[in-house]
Amino acid sequence: MTSLELGPPTSRARIRRLREKLLGWYDTNHRDLPWRRSRDPYAIWISETMLQQTRVETVIPYYERFLARFPDIESLATADRDDVYEHWAGLGYYSRARNLHNAAQMMVGDFEGRVPEQAEDLKKLPGVGRYTAGAVASIAYGQPEAVVDGNVIRVLTRLLDIRSDVAQKNVVERLWHEAGALALGERPGDFNQALMELGATVCTPRSPRCKPTCPLVRMCHSYAKGDVESLPNKPKNKKPRPVEAVAVWIPRRERILTVQRPETGLLANLWELPGGELPPKAEAKDHVEQIVRERVGLSLLSPTYAGTVEHVFTHLKMQLHLFRTAGAEGRVRNGGHQAHQWIAPDRFDDLPVSTLARKAFELLQ
Ligand code: SF4
Predict the structure, then answer these.
(1) 6 within a domain of the structure (yes/no)
(2) How many Å lie between the centroid of ligand 1 and the Cα of residue 180?
(3) Distance 162 CA to ligand 1 centre (A)
(4) Catalytic residue list contains 48
(5) CA-to-CA distance for 52 and 46, rounded, in angstroms?
(6) Beta strands in the chain (DSSP E)
(7) Choice among 48, 145, 244, 289 that is catalytic
(8) Which of 5, 201, 214 best tests ligand 1's pocket when mutated (most atoms within 8 Å of CB)?
(9) Ligand 1 — pocket residues by CB below 6 A?
(10) How far apart are CA 281 and CA 11, in angstroms?
């Protein structure tokens, strides 16, 4: 143990050494990512929003395409909502796109067309929580603000050997406190990125590359204990709740009916084929006509079952039973949907739709 630099977890001298080692490592080892080439707070805010819940490799082409179409706050704030969704399509969690659009409008209205500099102001924007506010304030403006994401949680719990359940409020607060102490000092934005980069590339969930790669190995309490991979201590994920629903292909004069989901809730604002959730334990074929009548006001002409597609959301496992029909009688009413349109099937791909709606469309087409 004497050869290790272990000391009181948060002593000033230890924090200084840790910062030096990690920044030195980051300077020579960080990945060249497009948003790291930019100092533009707008671009950094877009990248941080896209990176929530989405992998770096997935984000890169979306980030480049989004910035090419909406290069600044003004162009995003004045864009059509559907245009924003189209440039987000495929990234999932569409509420992020809606929040970006609303936040850009708020920046124009309340922040003189700029990305706010202070974390407290950033948190007033829709979709900007503690993490994103800290990331943008530190990376774009050099403010000594902390970030705590999954990577930081893993590095800090291992480094400090924090064995309590990381979902507990007091543990979360402790991690923010530790990250805050570490962010104080030179180059807080680079330091925060270094911490996240270490978690993403070295201090990985399985088989972390402690020796010889990790610059912090001599300071790492869980490594000294020989028990790294059991951290962080996370509660077991709950199983997603099973839900069943129906969707119907309703043709009329070479077009099909599509509807737009409500402004809030699951898959907000996205377009899909009409249908709705089934009552528990109900048979799809017994309820499809009633659901369509209630949701869009149409009476289906002999619907026939065509297949089922499945999609797992964070908390839901959705089984969507699909039906074809020769047509439907009546006028469309928006019962719970925002809007509807009859479109040529080859235009379906132009709409902002979820992965589940696309799976349904592809099966039925
Ligand atoms: S020594 Fe291993 S466990 Fe500790 S911070 Fe480095 S990679 Fe993570």
Answers:
(1) no
(2) 20
(3) 13
(4) yes
(5) 10
(6) 241-249, 251-252, 255-260, 271-272, 275-277, 299-301, 304-312, 316-324, 327-329, 339-343
(7) 48
(8) 214
(9) 155, 158-159, 202-203, 208, 210, 214, 216-217, 220, 222-223, 228
(10) 59
Most informative mutation of 225, 228, 230 for ligand 1 (most atoms within 8 A of CB): 228
Is 68 found in the same domain as 204? yes
- Is 23 part of a structural domain of the chain? yes
The boundaries of the domain holding residue 55 are 12-225
Please count the structural domains in the chain: 2
How do the pLDDT tens digits run along the chain, 365 residues long? 334 555 556 678 889 999 999 999 999 999 999 999 999 999 999 999 999 888 899 999 999 999 999 999 999 999 998 899 889 887 877 789 989 999 999 999 999 999 999 999 999 999 999 999 999 999 999 999 999 999 999 999 999 999 999 999 999 999 999 999 999 999 999 999 999 999 999 999 999 999 999 999 999 999 999 999 999 999 877 788 899 999 999 999 999 999 999 877 788 888 999 999 998 888 999 999 999 999 999 999 999 999 999 999 878 999 999 999 999 999 998 877 889 999 999 999 888 888 899 999 999 98
- The answer to whether position 131 is within a domain reads yes
In this structure, the answer to whether residues 112 and 186 fall within a common structural domain is: yes
Cβ–Cβ < 8 Å for 266, 347: no
Q: Which two tokens stand for residue 192?
A: 């925060």
Cβ–Cβ contacts within 10 Å for residue 281, how many? 6
For ligand 1, atom 2, name the residue with the nearest CA.
Answer: 210
